[in-house]
């Protein structure tokens, strides 16, 4: 494997979009640290943070920010050695689909090291990069195919669908009772499994999805704060403003002014 372009913890504004109908001419891996909109096989959907996608060579790449910011790690690479393709096949790394994997910290650290090596003058950097890449994909496979997820694979798949629904429709009245009922689980079992799979509680995800949706509306529309509260799933404007400030450190109006003013100067 050979990396020829890489980025660590890159952030972009709300208008960020990638559209490569013929792909990038190589393999590309993204670690998603914020929600995004991906178009795959003609269908667009919002995907949550803490996910990855591995694009095959020549596969169309179409994705964009969902909310005021898009943050990710990424690298472009080629499968130059005979064993490279076999390694990815053996590790069962899915391709051309967004896959939620929970905590990205360990994988992101490896990309940070890779980034350093790619741009270093290390005389043995090709060997070091090869070792880091193998380690990265082994660790990625572990995240995807851990024993816990294999034991509870059906639950994990169903939880992933629920999480996607939450991020696609943050304005709905999501409750623990409703979510656990949809999966025919007890409240405690549902909350425990959700936290184990994704590293956050279901209601923390609900709040995060609503705040991200509100941020997007605040920076891309002139809709009133009261209406944005309603469109983001809040019955009370006061509750929305209180929760927004808790999550961002700013009121909705302050956030809007801070994000929009620099663009108008």
Description:
This protein is α+β, with helices and mostly antiparallel strands and 265 residues long. It is built from 11 helices and 9 strands. The strands form 2 sheets. It has a 5-stranded antiparallel beta sheet with strand order 1-8-3-6-9. The protein has a 4-stranded antiparallel beta sheet with strand order 2-7-4-5. Helix 2 packs antiparallel against helix 3, helix 5 runs parallel beside helix 8 and helix 8 packs across helix 11. The radius of gyration is 20 Å and the shape is globular.
**Derived structural class:** alpha+beta
**SSE arrangement, N to C:** EEEEEEEEHEHHHHHHHHHH
* Low-pLDDT segments, ≥5 res: none
Strand count:
9
- Strand content bin: 15-25%
Q: What is the end-to-end distance?
A: 45 Å
Largest sheet: 5 strands, antiparallel
Question: How large, in whole angstroms, is the Cα Rg?
Answer: 20 Å
| Major sheet: arrangement of strands | 1-8-3-6-9
Tell me, rounded to a whole number, the average pLDDT.
89
How many helix segments?
A: 11
Helical content, roughly?
A: 40-55%
Principal-axis shape: globular
Task: Describe the protein's topology.
Layout: E1 2-13, E2 17-20, E3 27-32, E4 36-40, E5 43-47, E6 51-55, E7 61-65, E8 69-78, H1 82-90, E9 99-100, H2 105-118, H3 125-144, H4 147-151, H5 153-168, H6 176-182, H7 187-198, H8 202-220, H9 225-231, H10 237-248, H11 252-264
Antiparallel strand pairs: 1-8, 2-7, 3-6, 3-8, 4-5, 4-7, 6-9
Helix pairs in contact: 2-3, 5-8, 6-7, 8-11
């Amino acid at each position: 494997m050979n990396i020829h372009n890489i980025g660590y913890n890159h952030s972009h504004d709300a208008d960020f979009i990638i559209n490569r109908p013929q792909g990038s001419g190589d393999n590309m891996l993204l670690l998603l640290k914020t929600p995004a909109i991906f178009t795959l096989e003609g269908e667009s959907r919002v995907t949550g943070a803490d996910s990855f996608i591995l694009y095959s060579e020549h596969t169309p790449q179409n994705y964009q920010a969902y909310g005021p910011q898009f943050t990710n790690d990424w690298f472009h690479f080629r499968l130059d050695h005979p064993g490279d393709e076999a390694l990815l096949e053996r590790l069962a790394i899915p391709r051309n689909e967004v896959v939620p994997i929970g905590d990205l910290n360990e994988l992101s650290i490896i990309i940070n090291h890779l980034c350093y090596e790619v741009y270093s003058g290390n005389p043995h950097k090709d060997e070091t990069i090869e070792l880091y890449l193998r380690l990265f994909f082994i660790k990625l496979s572990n995240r995807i195919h851990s024993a816990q997820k294999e034991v509870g694979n059906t639950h994990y798949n169903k939880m992933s669908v629920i999480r996607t629904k939450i991020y696609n429709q943050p304005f709905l009245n999501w409750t623990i009772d409703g979510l656990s009922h949809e999966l025919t689980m007890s409240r405690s079992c549902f909350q425990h499994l959700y936290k184990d799979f994704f590293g956050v509680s279901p209601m923390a995800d609900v709040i995060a999805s609503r705040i991200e949706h509100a941020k997007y509306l605040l920076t891309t529309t002139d809709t009133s704060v009261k209406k944005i509260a309603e469109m983001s799933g809040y019955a009370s404007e006061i509750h929305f403003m209180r929760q927004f400030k808790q999550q961002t450190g700013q009121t909705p109006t302050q956030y809007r002014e801070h994000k929009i003013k620099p663009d108008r100067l």
